[in-house]
TrEMBL record, chain A:
Involved in beta-(1-->2)glucan export. Transmembrane domains (TMD) form a pore in the inner membrane and the ATP-binding domain (NBD) is responsible for energy generation. Pfam families: ABC_tran (PF00005). Belongs to the ABC transporter superfamily. Keywords: ATP-binding, Nucleotide-binding, Transport. It comes from the Bacteria. This is Amino acid ABC transporter ATP-binding protein, PAAT family. It comes from Bradyrhizobium yuanmingense. Residues 13-247 form the ABC transporter domain. SUPFAM superfamilies: P-loop containing nucleoside triphosphate hydrolases.
TrEMBL record, chain B:
Its main location: membrane. It is found in: Cell inner membrane; Cell membrane. It comes from Bradyrhizobium yuanmingense. PROSITE patterns: ABC_TM1. Belongs to the binding-protein-dependent transport system permease family. HisMQ subfamily. This is Glutamate/aspartate import permease protein GltK. Keywords: Amino-acid transport, Cell membrane, Membrane, Transmembrane, Transmembrane helix, Transport. The keyword Membrane applies.
Length: 252, 200
């Protein structure tokens, strides 16, 4: 492996000159981003600006067309033989939860640790219950996803990702499919996770959350990173016109 | 059963868009679905022995026997129907389910075995069972190979003792009983799958 052979020793993700196209449409154009170990990044921008595409490239759910992505010392490419070696270390939480509806909550959390990490049933169960407790939903462990509220399902999804003990967590608008009264319980869980020192990249428009935990806000528009700053600076005095427009729209 | 397993394989081949093979499978399924079962039975009974004979080099037909013909034909025929059911079921699974599996680093094999196929089978089980009921009724077609199924047995008996009407009535009742038992099964499966919280 190329582990730590190049670049900053303390960075877990390095994206260089990334280009991603869908047919003739360029979704990402020359994107550069470095995520340091322990860093929390909030990614925002208007709809269609490429936020989802960027984080989906980081765990190779989308394949990029040009540029480099190095995750945990391993470069992602079409020729790589072991994508799952990278994906093991990268947890992801989706807007639409994507829990497995035919498995109970605890089984959702046990599946990957058993199949991928090779944990025994007992160990996987213990780990799952521990993390479900952490997201305060262990009392629902034997229910099915369809029997839970959206906020509960999203917390299960977070626990499921954490059960793989990832080195970094990616969130793609984890609260935007939720009813307003459930947003807080999910954000609280994420804040707690941040305070435990997890490395996080979150696509979200929850500015209160960004203020509280982000080390850096990255603003994207039309497939490029337009502005990067600490949250205080970004919200108080955005440098670019586009960021000002965007902030005007989401705060109204 | 054989049909179901084979059908699932056929559906997966199409789903993965395996080059060439995928097209072949599609053609096979279309062919099987457009010709009547009885024709397939005949083909198998008369043509395959000849083909086998040629392959064997002797040029003389190798008979495969009526029972085997029936088994193989039903297996192949049903596989085409089941594969359609499974294929549609696969397409109905949300893309997010595949992505969640990718994000969890599950292998393709585990993805299908533990996550995708269980959902497809659950959703498709009522249709699969209905198809199986039809298959059961179709078994009466094997009389063309002078094999004896339920109906065949009855008509032989009827001719022996001359009580045609009664015999056919009894048989109708037996078919009805088995089919409705299976339908009951379908209904209870539907109910169970509702309890699993799979509304959406
Ligand atoms: N699979 C795809 N095929 C074709 N075009 C796509 C695909 N996925 C995304 N796009 C396009 O790429 C662009 C960026 O999409 P992306 O989902 O990354 O935006 P986003 O910033 O996450 O927006 P949103 O806030 O709406 O989620 C959009 O214009 C979208 O239409
Ligand atoms: Mg998005």
């Amino acid at each position: 492996m190329l582990e730590f052979a190049e670049g900053n020793r303390a960075s877990i993700v390095t994206v260089e000159n990334l280009v991603k196209r869908f047919g003739h449409f360029t979704a990402l154009n020359d994107v550069n981003l470095t995520v340091a170990v322990g860093e929390k990044i909030v990614l925002c921008g208007p709809s269609g600006s490429g936020k989802s595409t960027l984080i989906r490239c980081i765990n190779h759910i989308e394949k990029h067309d040009a540029g480099r992505i190095v995750v945990d010392g391993i470069e992602l490419s079409d020729r790589m033989t072991d994508v799952n070696g990278v994906r093991r270390e990268v947890g992801m939480v989706f807007q639409s939860f994507n829990l497995f509806p035919h498995l109970s909550v605890v089984e959702n959390c046990m599946l990957a640790p058993m199949k991928v990490r090779g944990l025994s049933r007992t160990d996987a169960h213990e780990r799952a219950i521990g993390l479900l407790r952490k997201v305060r939903i262990h009392d629902q462990a034997n229910k099915y996803p369809g029997q839970l509220s959206g906020g509960q399902q999203q917390r299960v999804a977070i626990a499921r990702a954490l059960c793989m003990q990832p080195k970094i967590m990616l969130f793609d608008e984890p609260t935007s499919a939720l009813d307003p009264e459930m947003v807080k319980e999910v954000l609280d869980t994420m804040v707690e996770l941040a305070k435990d020192g997890m490395t996080m990249v979150c696509v979200t428009h929850e500015m209160g959350f960004a203020r509280e935990i982000a080390d850096r806000v990255v603003f994207m528009d039309r497939g490029s990173i337009v502005e990067e700053a600490d949250p205080e600076t970004f919200f108080r005095a955005p440098r670019t016109e586009r960021a000002r427009d965007f902030l005007g729209q989401i705060i109204h | 059963m054989v049909g179901l397993v084979l059908g699932t394989c056929l559906a997966l081949v199409q789903h993965f868009e395996v080059p060439v093979l995928g097209k072949l499978v599609r053609g096979y399924v279309a062919l099987m679905r457009s010709i009547p079962l009885i024709l397939v039975l005949f083909w198998f009974f008369f043509l395959v022995p000849i083909v086998l004979g040629h392959l064997g080099g002797s040029g003389r037909p190798v008979p495969i026997g009526a029972t085997w013909t029936a088994f193989i034909t039903f297996g192949l025929f049903e596989a085409a129907y089941y594969s359609e059911i499974i294929r549609v079921g696969l397409r109905a699974v949300n893309r997010g389910q595949f992505e969640a599996c990718q994000a969890l680093a599950l292998s393709t094999f585990d993805t299908y075995r533990a996550v995708i196929l269980p959902q497809v089978l659950r959703v498709a089980s009522p249709i699969i069972l209905s198809q199986t009921i039809i298959l059961f009724q179709d078994t009466s077609l094997v009389y063309v190979l002078s094999l004896t199924d339920l109906l065949g047995a009855a008509s032989k008996l009827a001719q022996l003792n001359g009580r045609l009407v009664e015999m056919y009535l009894v048989i109708a009742v037996v078919y009805l009983a088995i089919s409705s038992a299976a339908s009951q099964c379908v209904a209870s499966l539907r109910k169970r799958y509702a309890i699993a919280g799979l509304r959406r």
